[in-house]
Each structure stands twice: as C-alpha cells, then as structure tokens.
Specification:
With about 80 residues, this protein is mostly helical. It has one domain (about 1-65): BFD-like [2Fe-2S]-binding domain (Arc Repressor Mutant, subunit A). The chain contains four helices and two strands, in the order ββαααα. The chain has helices at about 10-20, 25-30, 40-55, 60-65; strands spanning about 1-5, 10. The protein has a two-stranded antiparallel ribbon. A hairpin with a 4-residue loop joins strand 1 (about 1-5) and strand 2 (about 10). It is elongated. The termini are far apart. The relative contact order is 0.17. The chain binds FE2/S2 (inorganic) cluster. FE2/S2 (inorganic) cluster (FES) binds near residues 5, 36, 39 and 41.
C-alpha cells in the first residue's frame, strides 16, 4: 500500500526504514521524502511507523505500556 503518493513510498519501505533505524516521521522525511510535499501522508506515516515499531520491537513497546504514573506522595 502506498503511504506517500507524492514520493511513491510504500508501507514496506517504511518498515524497511524502521528496521534500519528510523524512529520518527522526521527520519522518514529525511530518508524517503515522506511528508515533504503536500503533507497529506503524515498521519498515515505516523500510524505505519508505530505499527512497524510494534512489530519489530515488541518488548520495547510492551515495556513502555507497562509504565504507569506514580503519585508524588507515594515516593
Ligand atoms: S502524499 Fe506524502 S507528501 Fe504528499
């Protein structure tokens, strides 16, 4: 599926970029041009980036989910 039509960037390319270190939409913009023309793809690119991170780093995402706020009086 195409995520960025302006630069013909696919979901697969975003997953590949994440595998090689992309962590933010800014990284995708620098490496693939995502969001650098009309910008309509940015929200879809964010969702794709998140899905790729969850798929490739499930333990990191799981540990982030397990974090919970602590009340200041409890510390
Ligand atoms: S669709 Fe990605 S910049 Fe236009």
């Amino acid at each position: 599926m195409y995520v960025c039509v302006c630069h013909a960037v696919t979901e697969r390319q975003i997953h590949h970029a994440v595998k090689h270190g992309a962590k933010t939409v800014k990284h995708l913009k620098e490496s693939l041009g995502v969001g650098s023309e009309c910008g309509k793809c940015v929200s879809c690119a964010k969702a794709c980036l998140k899905a790729a991170h969850e798929e490739q780093h499930p333990s990191l995402v799981k540990s982030m989910i397990q974090l919970s706020p602590v009340q200041l009086g409890a510390v």
